[in-house]
Amino acid sequence: MYHLLMGIIECAAAGGSGIDGDVSIMAASISGYTFSSVCFHSANSNSDHEGFLLGEVRQEETVSISDTQISTAELLQVVEIHNHDPCAQLFSFYDYAGKVNEDNLNRILKDRRKSVIGWYRFRRNTQQQMSFREQIIHKQLTQLLGVPDLVFLLFSFISTANSSTHALEYVLFRPNRRYNQRITLTIPNLGNTSQQEYKVSSVPNTSLNYAKVIKEHGAEFFDKDGVMKDIRTIFQVYSALQDKVQAVCGEVEQSERVKEKIQEDVNKLKQQIALRKRKTAEEERRLREAQNAESHPTSEENSEPSETSLLSRVAFHAPSAPERPGTSPNPPSYSDLLSQEDSLLSSSSSPTSAALLPRPQAVGSPGHPTPGPLGMGLGLSLGLGLGLGDSSEYENLVSEAAHLPMVSASVLAQGRPAALSPDGDARGSQTS
Amino acid sequence: MNNMSPEVALHRISPELRPLLCSVVRNGRVGLDSTNCLRVTDLKTGCTSLTPGPCCDRFKLHIPYAGETLKWDIIFNARYPELPPDFIFGEDAEFLPEPSELPHLVQWDAGDPECLLQLVKELIQQYHQYQCQRLRESSRLLFEYDSLLEDPNYGRNMEIYAGRKNSWTGEFSARFLLKLPVDFSNIPVYLLKDTALDPGEDVALLSVSFEDAEATQVFPKLYLSPSIEHALGGSSALHIPAFPSGGCLIDYVPQVCQLLTNKVQYVIQGYHKRREYIAAFLSHFGMGVVEYDAEGFTKLTLLLMWKDFCFLVHVDLPLYFPRDQPTLTFQSVYHFTNSGQLYSQVQKSYPYSPRWDGNEMAKRAKAYFKSFIPQFQEGAFANGKL
């Protein structure tokens, strides 16, 4: 039955007569209960009906900044209709000539006069156009009430000849402007169901009963500062969680340092073992050469030590994989970060920069894979299915680890910093 | 609900408002063009739809003005019939009369049936002034208006409609409707009797449309009330000279006026002249007159004998006699043509002068008959059969 309009349409006025300032756009809204109240009064009257609209007008300024660096400021005049004051009869504040009687006006409005922002009229089966008398009255009201942009709401009720369909049409005018006199009136929270939010209006709640009830029961929800208790509680939980996370960060740092120290020691020992092995091999070779000076030398035996060394290296990889710490599944190691920045030849492995603190990451965050079975050995470490593509450090690892089987002994001999990587100590053990 | 007859409108309107509408619909003639009376359409009600009828209290009033029809909404309240109405002036959204100029609104008296009609007349007056104000947009047209206003013959009987012909291009146009001060009172009554429509007041209106503000496209048109149009000889009487380029109304309008007056004079004179003519023939031919038009004196039939040869003479007198010569039709009483009609010959040119009086014309006619009849007789015997 009600004719509903959606959206707020801005009207650009080309300088209305009698309006100061450059207010260019006007939007208007009326609360649902006020609208229905006006309709109720109107529909129940057996003749034309009129009354006053109470509310407030405020100005909003929006500054929009675009890439072209030209910022435009728009002034939006927002009219909100909070309430209405129906007149008991026609011609109650004006005479036959349309002259407004100020005394009668005051008697009707009393102290609500200052919140009048417009007036309305209801007439059945007529055009949506201001009539002769309405225009005359409007001019006088604008002056008497001192509202330069007084609005006029016109209700029209159209019925079909057989009374099967009735339409309530309403148009909001601002007749004091020369152009674009009609403004779209929105009723918040009424209309299109695709609208998600429930809009709250800024109508001040003047109900005494409401204030009383809130005062009585408010203590259950609000603390002495007026803040809702739930909010405080939630905030406390949040703070506690933050503290715990900080503590864990410290622990992780500690364990990482310890682990690195051990790694260093292991590497040193490995180096020593390798050295000793080399020495032994040298001696044996010299002995054999001395012996071979009598017999033929074979080249097959030369490859053996490298194969055995390779095998020993491979065998060394496997056990290290399951020893990964469980608290932080895929943290980048300090050394990883260092290896990116420094050259490959750097041998330093102790992270001292504060910038290399681990990034606290939540368990199950989408950015990183959940902890799962990690690649054992070289073969699986090559697989990118572990989500190594996320962090660039891991990519480096993969690309470097891919070269592992093909790397010659000379490259492996280069000192590599100790690296904690998904594929265990693959890199670290390359030094030989 | 268009073309609603007045009676239907009166039937549907709320009983308390009926007298007001009655005088508007039955007697309401405003403006110069009084042949078109006020029309009422789109009767609606302002009461709830459950109110039993008749309870209509708002309608559209069609008012002829300066060649246009104004459609104004008039809004009453059936529940409060003592209250004055409100108006919506249709497309003239900027027309806002001053209430102090509308005494019948300020002192609205619902008990006076003429009140609404009087109020409408006052509004029309204000509307006229509003239109004249709009003429100010064109100095040329304003000059036309002012010059006409000064002439007492035309100044008081003028309706102006000014406006933008085309709201996009902003072309300005205006129409002047003037009542021509021509006296039709002496036109013989018989001429005015033959119209089927209610004759109303005899009036001649000149409508001059200016299609642009510089008065380069001007279209005049003459409107006559139906009886006058018939009396003056039909639509051919409406031929008026074209508006001279560069000319102005104050020169042109009197020209048209004079033309019309002359025509009327002709017609009046013609009537008298014809009467005189017929009277003279009656006295000259006495018993030879078979019949004549005793109302308009346009026809006369004589039965004459010459040397035992009888024949009829029908005389047809034209509207603009004596300027135009009467037509003589000789008819034999004995002979038939092949189509079964009486043998006749029409003579349009014979010795004649408009300056002769009736007697002289009768004498000359007699002489002519004598000279022509032998010829006719021969013709009748030769071409006709008994």
UniProtKB/TrEMBL annotation, chain A:
What biological process terms from GO does the record include? attachment of spindle microtubules to kinetochore; cell division; mitotic spindle assembly; protein K63-linked deubiquitination
- One GO CC annotation, please? nucleus
PANTHER family in the record, alphabetically?
A: ABRAXAS FAMILY MEMBER, BRISC COMPLEX SUBUNIT ABRAXAS 2
Can you give the residue ranges of the MPN domain? 28-174
**What Gene Ontology molecular-function terms does this entry list?**
microtubule binding; polyubiquitin modification-dependent protein binding
- Domain of life of the source: Eukaryota
Q: Where is the composition biased (Low complexity)?
A: 333-357
Keywords of this entry: Cell cycle, Cell division, Coiled coil, Cytoplasm, Cytoskeleton, Microtubule, Mitosis, Nucleus, Ubl conjugation pathway
Q: Tell me which stretches of the chain form a coiled coil.
A: none
Kindly provide the name given to this protein in its UniProt entry.
Abraxas 2, BRISC complex subunit
Q: Where in the cell is it found?
A: Cytoplasm, Cytoskeleton, Spindle pole; Nucleus
Q: What is the name of the gene encoding this protein?
A: ABRAXAS2
Give the matching Pfam families. MPN_2A_DUB_like (PF21125)
For this protein, the record's InterPro entries field holds:
BRISC_Abraxas2 (IPR023240), FAM175 (IPR023238), MPN (IPR037518)
Enumerate composition-biased segments (Basic and acidic residues). 280-291
Region spans: Disordered: 276-374
Family, as annotated: Belongs to the FAM175 family. Abro1 subfamily.
From TrEMBL, chain B:
An individual GO BP term: chromatin organization
Taxonomically, the superkingdom here is: Eukaryota
GO CC, any one term: BRCA1-A complex
Q: Where in the cell is it found?
A: Cytoplasm; Nucleus
Answer whether the UniProt record assigns the keyword Translocase to this protein. no
Q: What does this protein do?
A: May play a role in homeostasis or cellular differentiation in cells of neural, epithelial and germline origins. May also act as a death receptor-associated anti-apoptotic protein, which inhibits the mitochondrial apoptotic pathway.
Description of how the protein assembles with itself and partners: Component of the ARISC complex. Component of the BRCA1-A complex. Component of the BRISC complex. Binds polyubiquitin.
Q: What family does the entry list? A: Belongs to the BABAM2 family.
> What is the designated name of this protein?
BRISC and BRCA1-A complex member 2
Q: Which gene is the coding source of this polypeptide chain? A: BABAM2
